[in-house]
Sequence to fold (525 residues):
Amino acid sequence: MRVIRACRELGIVSVAVYSEADEASLHLKLADESVCIGPAISTKSYLNIESIINAATTTGADAVHPGYGYLAEKAEFAKACAERDIVFIGPTPDNLKLAGDKISAKNIMEKAGVPVIPSSPGGITRLEQALGICREIGYPVMIKASGGGGGRGIRVCTNEEILCEDFPIAKAEAAAAFGNDELYVEKFIQEPRHIEFQILADHFGNIAHLGERECTIQRRYQKLIEESPSPRLTPELRKAMGAAAIRVAAAVDYFNAGTVEFLLDRHGNFYFMEVNARIQVEHPVTELTTGIDLVKEQIRLSSGGKLDYTFDDINKRGWAIECRINAEDPERDFLPSPGTVAEYHPPGGYGVRLDTHLYQGYELPIFYDSLIAKLVTFDLTRDGAISIMRRALDEYIISPLKTTMPLYRQVMDDPDFCNGDFDTGFIKKYVPDDDDDEDDD
Amino acid sequence: MAEGKKVEVRAPMSGVFYRKSAPDQPSYVEVGDTVKKKQVLALLETMKVFQKVKSPSNGRILEILVENETPLKDNDLMFIIEAT
Fold:
């Protein structure tokens, strides 16, 4: 829907694709045309390259925007588009291949002089490999999907027993979410902040960063609340990290929009984590503080447009905060809460942006992500953006689904959050991060 | 718990039922298997999140009522276990 809206504003005709489970989805109503690409199970629809290419060729589409899930970071998909003379609005297949391959990306960054975290030397698919590597780097370790992002398939293992039980499940989650079951393991760094930089790059070698996003408020590596700028960064640190982000993009000859993720420790040391070679869920906070529509920039750059500005040229102002509203029950260990939206009332007014596909009477499919809305608020100060967020959360009615809104409402009143003093463990204060191996009865 | 008592294992919410961690892996359990309390019996995928379906007690699998990869509704019966 985000992309359809940008197209509409640019006077570009759009075609939506959908699975049989998404026949009632709102994006079909906004698009000029729509094509069904297969059954509910995503491997047969949204992850089916041939289906999507067919939809593009039969409708005569000039370009495909891959969004931010499923095939967005699949080099094979970008290649398949290129072979049919369809513009893939995103990075080059080589960029995707490298960014998707977190191990090679890390090795390149290490050579480019960007600091990195100790990890497995390559992608792994067998438990025995994982056990060997973890004996070397020591517990606790993190298992991640090599081809993934967005936190799906990520698990922390504190010992071998847990690793043995979680490894096959992490594989299954990786395969289901990204169509690739390769995993990698790395040393788990404690009490970090997650800071990422938005990158844009054109076909002529110009690269700019658009400032940072603070994505530290997470639960089990799923981002919950993001903001821009970060309350932690000094102008000096922003400059150093921004320059490192551009070095990262330059080292891989990056094209189009992307994000460079860093972990920042309490002493101001930062480590490269990964490149997300796509537009991200949390991109609106950057748009609101820079005044740049990132999806339109993606389209412009893919049409051969030139990037003729740098971070210093941007008219930056104010503060933006995004809450990712998930159909999950924070009271019940964030279990998904599928169902039908019986009562719906969206917030509005000054400083509120709401990106959502919800409407009254909509039934959430069980097959897809639990993210149902992105509520973003903007004001000239961080305090102002927080008070608008409190008000907007109070206004928003999505009934009877359980959502993460009550949790966000508590966070907006939290003194440490309001002071900008937190790390990635912050949310445990409100939600004990019980491992589901410990106790669930 | 009384010896031989039948225990039902029902879906805690709607989701897709998986008997194994991957298509090329063996099933977690088969009918007749002896299971321990909290042993993983199956996976349930709801909105891309996998939950472990665990045995509520020590016992033996009497029946498995759903096929692999079936979409289930909240409270659908998945297993019957004879508790020991």
